[in-house]
Each structure stands twice: as C-alpha cells, then as structure tokens.
Write a structure and sequence with these properties.
Elements lengths: L2 H26 L11 H29 L5 H20 L1 E4 L2 E3 L8 H10 L1 H4 L4 H16 L10 H27 L6 H9 L18 H14 L1 H20 L2 H12 L5 E4 L15 E5 L2 E12 L6 E7 L10 E7 L14 E6 L9 E12 L11 H37 L1 E2 L2 E2 L4 H29 L5 H26 L9 H10 L8 H14 L4
Parallel strand pairs: 3-6
Antiparallel strand pairs: 1-2, 4-5, 5-9, 6-7, 8-9, 10-11
Helix pairs in contact: 1-2, 1-4, 2-3, 2-13, 2-14, 2-16, 3-6, 3-13, 6-13, 7-9, 9-10, 9-12, 10-11, 10-12, 12-13, 12-14, 12-15, 13-14, 14-15, 14-16
Amino acid sequence: MKNNELENELEKISNLGIKLLNSARNNGVAIPEKHSDKNQHYFHGFAWYATYFKAIETAYKWIKSLNENDLLTEYEIEIAKVGISEYCLQILHGIPMSQSEIIRPDEIFIDENLIEEFKKISQTIINESKSETKQKLCEIIKNNTNNGIFPNIGLDQTNEQIRQEFAKFTNEKIIPNAQKWHLNDELIPISIIDEMSELGVFGLTIPEEYGGLGLSKTAMCIVSEELSRGWIGTGSLGTRADIAAELILVGGNEDQKKKFLPKIARGKILPTAVFSEPDIGSDLAHLKTRAILNGNNYEVIGNKTWITHGSRANLMTMLVRTKKDIDDHNGLSILLAEKTSGNQDDPFPDENIKGGEIDVIGYRGMKEYDIAFEGFKVPSDHLLGDTEGQGFRQLMSTFESARIQTAARALGVSQNACDLALQYSQERSQFGKELINFSRISEKISAMYAETMIARQLTLYAAKIKDTGQRCDMEAGMAKLLAARTAWASADSALQIHGGIGFASETPISRVLADSRILSIFEGTAEIQAQVIAKRLFESNNR
C-alpha cells in the first residue's frame, strides 16, 4: 500500500466511523434511562466505540500530515496498517473494555447496513492484519531501533527538540537507576529533582511572568511521556506541579499567584493534591473533611487517603468542606496549605497532622499516604480565590489537563514495555534462535508498538485542543481511557515475552507491569472516563 493509498483508505474509514457513531447515538436516544446504572454496558460500550473512531481519525490526520510534508516513510506506514487493521476488526467483532468485558456493534445499536458498509470499506486495510505484515513491522522496528532511528511522531521542531532533550536525560539518569529505586522503595532522589528543576520540568506550563517557561500542554505531554518511559514516578512528579499551578492560575488571586507560582516553577515548592477520602472514591462532591474558620485561620478536621508524595511535599492543595450546611459540591473549597517536608523517621512533623504510608506494588518514588487532620491550621488568605464554595468548580477545571497527563504517563509506561520486550527478545535464545524470530513474539511486539503510537496520536490531539482553550473533557477522557489500557496490555505482553524471569521482582518488566495497573484507576477510573465520554456525546452534537 502506497502513501496516498493509505491516506485515502484511512480517510474513508474515519468518515464512515463518524456515520456509525451517529447511527448508534440516534438509535440509542430513545432508550429509557440510558444513563442509569443498569445500562452501563451499553453506555460505556458506546464510549469505547467513540474512542476507537476518534483514535482512527487522529491516526489518519497523523499520516496525512506526514504525507503532505514528505515525511511519511515505510516505518509509519506499517505502524498504521498494523494498528488500524486491528482496530477495524475489533469494531466489527467486539472491543475489549477490559479483560472480561467485550462490547459488540449490535449492543450499541449500530445499523446493520452501516456495519456491512464499514466491513467493505475497511477490507483493504483489514487484509493487512496478516501475520506477514506484523512480522515485517517487527523487522523494521528492530533494524531502526538498533540504529537509533525512531518513527516520526509528527511534532513540530520545538517539541521534537524538547522530546530529544528529555529522552537523553531519561536514558542517562533515570533508566539506569529506576529498578534500584523501585526495589528499595526509595523516594525520588533530591539530586534528580534538582536536575529536573534545572530542565524546567516544574515550570513547564507556568507563564513566564510567574517564573515558568510558558510552554504548551503538548510540551507537558511530551515531557511526561519521556520521564515516565524511564520510571512512572519521575513522570508523575512533574504533573504534581502542573496540576497545582493550574489550580492557582485558574482560581487564585494575584497575591497567591505571585507567592506560589515562582517557587513551584523553580522546584522550591513540591506540591501534592489532597483530594481523596476513605469510602469516597470518585464521588468528591460528597467528601467530609471540614475546614472551620476560626479567626484568621481555617482549622482542618478529617481524613484523606491516597495522597501521593504526601510526606515530602510542602504545599497541599486541599479540597475541604467550608460550608457545613451544604453537603454537596457547593460547600467545597480549596485551601493552599503549607506544611513542613517530612522524612522517613518523621513523615509529618507539623502539629495536628498525622499520617501513615500505604504499601503499594508499583507507582513508587513518591509514596502514598493516609493523612489525618486534627485541627491543622491554614491561614484564611490561603483560601483559593478568596471565595468559599468554589473548590469543586476549580478542581474540575484541572481534570482535562490531569487526564491528558495521565495518558502521557501511560504512553511512557507502554513505550518502556515495548523497549524491554524488543531488547529481551533479541538477547534471549530458545531452540537455537532469538525469541524475536518466533512469529508470535514478533507479532506481539508489532501490536504493542502500533497501539502505543495510535494512543499517542489521540493524546497529542487532546493536548492540542487544550492548548487552544477549547473544552476537551471528552477528548481527554478518550486519551486516558485508551492509553491506560494500552499500557497494561503492553506490559502484560512484554512480561509474557520474558517468560518466567519476567515474574521475578529483580527484572524491570515486573516493575513496569505493576506500574501500568494503576493507570486505569487514578485520575478517574476507566469506568468514570467512559461515563464522561458517553454523557458528553449524548448531551451535544459532539462526534
């Protein structure tokens, strides 16, 4: 398949995908209580189909852009063929929402005639799903990677330079040490944090007037992916700063911006998000932690959980209930609560705050904590934006960025799994030949690389929309939904390629597998993402 042929084929598939989605939505409008809990299989399945169609669309735009700029090579062509042929087959026969849940086209009421039309139009690229095509792609991946050549992601010159800079840092400073840090359950070394600060990680998207670099969310995606490719902990550390900074930029007054943002940008303040509570999960509107105004201070009383980097951090963005008579989201506020950085022996040295570490199987480097507040004092002028009751709205304004960042971190984890699988398959021999020369191994590697690229294009697309200032909660949810599943699938396949040794804790792929599992849970579970996507599609003319 030649360049123009592939572009034309993907355009036809993308356009028909929109028709299929609209058909499903129109047929589903009449379903009673379609948003109710008892219809989640249909409702969330619809979201998965929409995500696949959007992923194909963004992959098409990627190929089209490369072709128009004479940058499209065999490498990108074969990636697109392998990835999109598989997605077309799943659209026709069933999309895995999880390991035990399949959604099929008839279950979301796609018109049968349109399905037949989709089958005919996509048949050319489906024919490329053969074993031979996947083996060819694996050979291309092997030869190019071994020669330091990588597929063209489609970045502009500035963002490509950023990617290369952080790829170098990750290769030299993180990858050689990540497994040791993980096994020792160590916090990210201060020396690494200092180097990340010098590279501008913590001020990447903070405006220059507040001491940051003023770069785009697209740049943040690129940085998060590269750092997470080394170790998810380092990738996630930067996003702590980005989320806190966005909260202050969106909701803070000028004094709060001037006080906190320059210090965050320089890495002098390490923030943590203090939102989750026991038994609350994603239902943040009904959290119970209270902040009572007493003179010039709020006194915080309550329990928080799953607080990432809770001990070392010295700024907490705290979601609390300041209006005791209002038990929904209208009673919530965000406090900018400063605290003393803790250490191993004394994790929470301040008065009226206690906490304990939560042992986790992965996602190490920052540590997770339960924290109890027993009258912890926060100055009243640290109420974000000066007005009570705005906390939930302020937090919602950051969800798009947080979910795009999580997708980027998932891509880094997925790419790490791809790299480890490729490396091991060439190092390990069985029955007189390298593992990579067995067809099922090479096909696994091809599928991993292809789906990672497709998820990457969807994530970059969401980031670009965010950079324009448009609402993108649907696209951000799609990116996180797909990238998180891709990370888990890649890690699982990579461990299978390793065989028994992959199950040993000393082997990096065991860490990557553990790290990948959290991605479908935090920043809104896969189920929550599907709910958000489908609701947005039904409430508007979004496609």
